[in-house]
Prior knowledge:
It contains four helices and nine strands. The strands form two sheets. Strands 3-2-1-9-4 form a five-stranded mixed beta sheet, with helices on one face. The chain has helices at 2-37, 41-44, 53-63, 168-177, and strands spanning 74-78, 83-87, 93-98, 109-112, 115-121, 127-137, 140-147, 163-165, 183-187. It is α+β, with helices and mostly antiparallel strands. InterPro entries: LD_TPept_cat_dom. It comes from Streptomyces marispadix. This is L,D-transpeptidase.
Amino acid sequence: MARGSSAGAVVAGLTAAALAVIGFFTYQASAAQDRAKAGSSDERGGTGGSEGPREREKRERETNLPAFSGVGERVVYDLDRDRVWLMGRDQEVKRTFRVAPSSVDPQPGTYKVESRAPHVTGSDGVPVENVVRFATNQGTTIGFSSALDGSLPEAEPGGQTGGIRERRADGEAMWLFATIGTKVVVVR
C-alpha cells in the first residue's frame, strides 16, 4: 500500500507541475496581447526589438504619458505632441497613438465626452466615423474622429475645423473607450 501511495504522490506532483507550466505560458500569452493593445502599429513600427538605444529612448520620450495629466480612467490629449493616451482606472495605458490635429485646438483643461456619432460628415466635408466630441472653442465643436477613407487632413489656411483625426483602428479604440461622460484631459 505504501508503494501505491508514493506512486500516486508522484503522479499528483507531475500533474501539478504540468498545470503550473501551462498557467505560466497562458500568462505570457496574455501579457503579450496586452502589450500589443497598448500601441498601434505606428508605435511598434515593426522593429521587432532591433531598434537601438537612441531610437528606443526617442520613442519612449514621445510616448511617455505627460506629467500632471490626471488620474483614473480618462483620455489624455497632448497638443504639443499630437498624441492621445487611453488610460485605465489603474493608471494603465490601454493605448497610445498619434493624431492629426484640428485647426482649432481645445484649451488645455479637463472636459467630458459630450456627444458621439457613429457616422457624420466632418467639418472639412469628409465622411467620418466614431466621432467623440468633448469641447467647443471659438464657436467650433472639437472631437476625435476617423475618415472612412483613412485619410488624415491637411490644415487649411483660414479654415476652422474641430476634427482631431485618427487612423481607423485608433478611432475604433477611442469609440469603444470614450463613452458619454468619459473624462478628457488636454495638456500642452
